Amino acid sequence: MDLNKQKNFLIRFAFWVIILAILYICLKYALPFFAPFVFAFVAAFLLNWPIRRAERKLHVPRVFPAILITALFFVAAGALITLLGFRLFSSARQMIGALPDFYSATLLPMLQELFSRLEVTLSALDPSAVAALEDISQDVISSLGSLVSNISISAISAISSLAASVPGTFLNLVITIIVTFFMTIDYPKITEFLLRQFPEGGRRVISDIREYVCGTLIKCILSYALILSITFTEIAIGLTLLRVPNAILIAVGIAIFDILPVLGTGGIMIPWAVISLVTGDLFHGIGLLVLYLVITVIRNIIEPKIVGHQVGLHPVVTLASMLAGLQLFGVIGLFGFPITLSLLKNLNDRGVIHIFK
User: Fold this and answer.
1) How many CA atoms lie within 13 Å of 278's alpha carbon, on the beta-carbon side?
2) C-alpha angle 301/306/308, rounded to 5°?
3) Which family does it belong to (predicted)?
4) Model confidence over 57-73: pLDDT tens digits?
5) CA angle 38, 44, 46 (to 5 degrees)
6) To which H or E segment does residue 185 belong?
7) Which residues contact 260 (CB under 8 A, 6 or more apart)?
8) What angle do CA 216, 221, 224 make, to 5 degrees?
9) The dihedral formed by the CA atoms of 134, 135, 138 and 142, expressed in degrees to the nearest 10
């Protein structure tokens, strides 16, 4: 009996491992090829509600509001992306252009003065250590110079690669726009066709999944909006106490940058603090490090609780799923893994599926 249980367990375990491996391969490698169609279907799903309302209010065939609303959607999205892209490109170009001047005019003289003072101090204490310090100083200055040059070269290479990828990106964009128009026009027919391929029980499960995922996704968006507001408030108060000019505007920029995984607030505040310390501004350097530490601690405490409460998961499970999703699938996994686990838990609790007790 025990042997049969072990065999059944191994068979079920192997089955789920194979299913997970197939899902991983599909999401990791096949999804980029179908990305235009996936995006078009998601856009059609999101635009379906306003299209239906316009169709009922105006008493016109679906094709007219579908074309109009889809066109407005792409115009608004294109204008927003273009505006943000030009702003980001302009800011990045200014930062990269100012980096060599900052190194040669500020950082290099400061390092040379710092090492000179250390040499004077060490020569009084241990004259034999002066030679080693000179070698270290030369290595540090040389490494920093190479780093600045590499950053400039990498930036130029990145811009060249981006320019080279424009034709392919433009082709995918055109395909996505065309497919989106067709899907928004025929969205009810497409969904009805897909649902007809499932048995009656499967249709109910898909309907439950759609309603639950949509509700959970909205809750997650609201949760992260709350976290973003808390982060903005903390940064604004901290920068105001540090007497930083334009504290509110800077707090808005850092809070928006905090949406990015891995980088977050640290992508701006840590380099800012290091530069302040290196240039001798100890007040702002230490203050920014303390502020970043406070923000990080509070973020790690509230994020699992807020997001976990909204998706119905324990904070530890939420945090673990977010980290696993981020490592495996990036931003999509960061949001998708908690929602997927929440969906599985909901279906399991309702008896639709039986995964865990």
Assistant:
1) 16
2) 100
3) Belongs to the autoinducer-2 exporter (AI-2E) (TC 2.A.86) family.
4) 888 888 898 999 999 99
5) 105
6) helix 166-185
7) 267
8) 120
9) -170
What are 201-224's pLDDT values in tens digits?
A: 666 767 777 776 666 667 777 777
Quote the CA–CA distance of 291 and 299 in Å, as a whole number.
12
pLDDT band for position 12 (50/70/90)?
confident
Q: How far apart are CA 293 and CA 302, in angstroms?
A: 14
pTM exceeds cut of 0.90:
no
Task: Give CA–CA dist 54/113, Å, rounded.
Answer: 70
Helix-helix angle 187-196:31-58, to 10 degrees: 120
Question: In b/e form, how buried is each residue of 225-241, taking b as 16+ CB within 10 angstroms?
Answer: eebeebbbebbbebbee
Within 8 A by CB and 6+ apart from 310, the residues are 216, 219, 220, 222, 223
Say if CB 280 and CB 307 are below 8 A apart: no
Residue 25 one-letter amino acid: I
Sign, Cα dihedral of 258, 293, 310, 315: positive
**Tokens representing 334?**
């960061």
Reduce the DSSP state of residue 258 to 3 states and report it.
Answer: coil
- Between CA 22 and CA 16 the distance in angstroms is 10
Residue 135: count other Cβ atoms within 10 Å of its Cβ: 10
SS3 category, 243: coil
Judged by DSSP in three states, 77 sits in helix
Q: Which two tokens stand for residue 69?
A: 């609303």
Torsion of CA 197, 46, 43, 304, to 10 degrees: -100
Q: What angle do CA 264, 265, 270 make, to 5 degrees?
A: 115
353 is written with which tokens? 């599926």
In angstroms, the first-to-last Cα distance of the chain is 21
